[in-house]
Amino acid sequence: MMMLPAVGGRSPLFALSVSAGLVLVFIFGFMAWQSPPRMSFPHGSSHTDLSLANQKADVSISEVIRLLYQNMKTAPTEPFIREPNGSHIALPPNPRYKKTMGSDILILDLETRPLKSTDDFKKGNYDWRNINHVSGGIFNHYTYALVHGYDYKFVHAHEFEDRHATWIKPSALANHIKNYKFIVFLDADAAFRFLHVPIEWMLNYWDIKPHHSFVMAKDPWTAAEPQYNSDRFNRSLTNTGFMVVQNNENTMPILKAWHECPEDVRYANCSQWKQPKFHEQSAFGEYIRYDYEQYVKELDCGEANGYPGLEVNNCQGKFVRHYWFEKHLVKKDFHENIMNAITLPIQKIFAENIGGVIVQQEKNVIDA
């Protein structure tokens, strides 16, 4: 996502014009950097109309993101990925997912809240520095979908009258899973740590098999304080802030049982979780997973939950970070990912002296 200066009291049209102009600069700049024999345009045209009326923001930003990440993306079977500190995370042998699945994967956001940043944008007041963690997280998820060619949906759901808003998850997942091989859902305060690493690589790393309907990470838990983040058996709950849902024969029965759990038909006293923490998460942990144990892959907390600085269970978000507290750090993660993508081709210019930007001064004298 491009960082724009504050537009103050200027009109939304002015802000949109600036945005469109910067997008086009990126497109032409990165296409030139790639040095293709000929620039291609939609519908076979050999030229582009620069008028604002003929530009679509979603198409333009898709092209920008594609170009930014096309030389950074990790293949599903890449032997390892590199951490910022120089260490490596190695992929286990015999990966199952060898090709990218593209639009067979849906990245899903669910919200009952409107995006404040959208309201600001419509007023001509959008400023990256002022958006909250909700928009920051959603921008992360949407950008991730663009990088890898996945489908993306933002479902704006009505709230329940009798239960907490997070209960929208089971029905929304059920309504969309039939159209996809996988749905990847994240809470707004959760973020992909590496935008360039596809979900297929993670599925290989976690050894996700065809019978796994749900993939979730555990919450932090210690025997010293078993009353926190645990079910009635003192077993760590799985966190529903990040879920990979696979379309198989067991998925819909699980989602139906979960959605209907608060009605106390199949599970007596599940209605206790209509409002108290942790709502649908507690219901899943207390009841659902015990009936469908073999179809739920539980990851260690540190794999896809928590964030740096948390010591319990080393829960520091190796691949997906979930900022239950310190929610503002969602924006920081996104910012660092995007800046890495933008500055890499800039570094290439200096490393390879493209365009002769580096001039050797052999003698420190003033030429006559």
TrEMBL record:
The keyword Phosphoprotein does not apply. GO terms for molecular function: glycosyltransferase activity. Gene3D superfamilies: Spore Coat Polysaccharide Biosynthesis Protein SpsA, Chain A (3.90.550.10). GO terms for biological process: protein N-linked glycosylation. Keywords: Glycosyltransferase, Membrane, Transferase, Transmembrane, Transmembrane helix. The keyword Membrane applies. One of its GO terms (cellular component) is Golgi membrane. This is Nucleotide-diphospho-sugar transferase domain-containing protein.
